[in-house]
Amino acid sequence: MASLTRGNVLPVPIATTPGGSPVKFRLTLIGALIASAVLAGCAGGSDDAPAAAAAGTTTLTPTRTIIMVWDGLRPDSVNATDTPNLYALRQSGVNFSDNHSTYPTFTMMNSSSFATGSFPKTSGFYGNTFWTPPQGSANTIPAGNGASGSAQDYQDPVFTEDYAVLATLNTYYGGQLLLVKSLFATAQAAGLTTATIGKSGAAYLQDLGQGGVFLDENTVQPRSLATELQNSGIALPANVVKNYSGADAVTLASSNGNPTARAGYITFNTTAYDPNGTLTVAARDSADTTQGAPEDAANKYMLSVYTQYILPKKKPMLSLIWFRTPDNVEHGYGPGTANMKAGLRSQDARLGELIAALRANGMDNSTNLVVVSDHGHSSVSGPLSLYPLRAITPSASLPNGTAVNGSTSGTSAASLGAVNANGYSFSGDVRSADLLTYRGFNAYDGSGCSTSAMYGLDANGNPTLPVKTDANGALCGTVNTKYQAISATKTSNPTARFTVPAPGSLPANGIVVAANGGSDYFYVPSHDAATVQNLVKVLQQREEYGAIFVDSRYGSIPGTLTMAQANLENGKRQNNGQPDVVVSFNWDADTSIQGMPGIEFESVGGQRGMHGSFGIADVHNTLIANGPSFQGGLTLTTPTGNVDVAPTVAYLLGLSMPQADGRVINEALVTPASKSQPNVAASTVSSSAASGLAFELPTDLTGATKDASLAAGTYTINMAVKDLSVDGKTYRYFDYAKAVRK
Length: 742
Ligand SMILES: [Zn+2]
Description:
By secondary structure, the chain is α/β, with parallel strands linked by helices. Among the domains are: about 1-120 and about 195-210 and about 310-375 and about 625-675, Alkaline Phosphatase, subunit A, CATH 3.40.720.10; about 680-740, no CATH class. Helices cover about 20% and strands about 20% of the residues. The strands form 10 sheets. It has a 9-stranded mixed beta sheet, sandwiched between helices. A 6-stranded mixed beta sheet has the order 18-21-22-25-23-24, covered by helices on one side. Strands 26-27-13-29 form a 4-stranded mixed beta sheet. The longest helix has 23 residues, at about 340-360. Residues about 1-60 have low confidence and may be disordered. It binds zinc ion (ZN). Zinc ion (ZN) binds next to loops. One of its GO terms (molecular function) is hydrolase activity. It holds the Pfam family Phosphodiest. It comes from Noviherbaspirillum pedocola. This is Alkaline phosphatase family protein.
């Protein structure tokens, strides 16, 4: 086809020869560029792209674009050894070196930013996990099943990485789960074919209106696609049978199997938390080098459906492919670990397969490939001065589990080792509902009795929060349940479960915590100002917490920023989904574990890696683009964000999204919408100071042990921002928000 745009081709996959010289590769690419320029003049429109504009005009040719999301990919994980295909793509395309994840830096928050080009102030979406408070005199809450077919609990905060949950919520919000028109809806309205593939929830949110082709780990849509795939001998996700019933029911072929089955993480047991040596806590064996990503087989299957069927048969002009890797291996084993790097290599092989498929279908010259991560990633850890790293002594034998889709699983015989500066973290977990309840609040997170190896071990091996056993079931509801909770030591009303009361039964000024990883949401349905002020003071005094954002309705509270200042306030969700307070857990960008800088506390979950904070390692994420619409060999240093991806891709498709908060990244494009030079001004937004505080060390959950090194008792927040002004509009990018205690 005659394209006005530069015909640079995508690099050949080189996953089979890792470590290839980038210089040599660039020369190869230049040769390919010349060849494609010749071909571009004579090739007929073999890929069904809309007709190009007449030569000599500056009208943009709508160009096929694929957005590939590598969940949790840190920019400093891209290199010639672990990600050779992506490294080559970055070298020959555009590297956006100052890209920003939307805060809170969760997967589903950024899924909504990719979908709408907007922040929650505009989209109204608060994933990953948010709470839908009972509404009206009937105390109405959503109702429906999850993707696995079982009833979803909406009394508790709900985890939104599930197409069926999102569909229920969309119905609950009257079809307005996203309050603005999405990129996919915009493309479909213009008659373009779209495809969405991959991770549960994150992929589905792109096409809530179900106007395109969709495949995730649980289902396919529309129903006719299930038949098409089966008629082509292609397996379906096993849970697809839960999506359709009656005349639409799907019967799986006997050979279907479970192509999206997930292998388990290898865990090991440590008795370190138990003074009596009789209890064990499962912890992930970060020293293991054999596992790779548990979703390798699922990702390979979903990509193969795309490359073998959807791409050649449907020829989508807009696609989004979202895979869990490397996020899953970062969560399970930690950034920088051997298994995390194994996950990077498998994900890069998927990119190689995608590029090969584009070439095989004659689409490589005419397709833009945008590789982006939803957020960065950090190691879960408290300060190493309080919680030194520890070795894990590897097991000599294989884990005891059965293999799933080719990956090992189960419990290994590895054991917890001694303090070791090159070791692994056993700290960083925080349970906000427990800390608040101990201090007299009525706080609930709906997570029940639980244990984690990540609450912290000091240098002498003393646990911050020992594991206990509920012998008679009084605390946990079932006899002999293990738990960890400081609130279980209260003399009156001891508790360890934090069950959210039934709709209509929340105590006056009760607080519901939506625990989310690197940030927590706090809902105060009474909107009682004193409760919010008291909550803020606890968060300021506990050193596990960082920057605090409070709904503007509570006025000026010392030592806080308003949620509006971080684009988190949405009037339509103010009493129905938007939290009253959002807090980032504390983070440290300079401390490294396994060679990767960036640590943070997390809501308890026993993870080795986490994101969601307002820290540098979580906010600064990966954005790389390559293809005919993008300049080549460019490192773009102007600030960009995940909210800019949708408006930019819309422009590449000949469309526009004027409702988006983000911008078209013109400075990366061959044919920009505007050639105006952006002006960038960096500044710091600071809160007022809270004073008279006594800071409490993370090692003592009772709060009795104060931090003698911070005697002034003042707390402020510094939020680093960059304002980019172009064509009469200003776009704000957030670099980080940091609590400053003195
Ligand atoms: Zn993610």
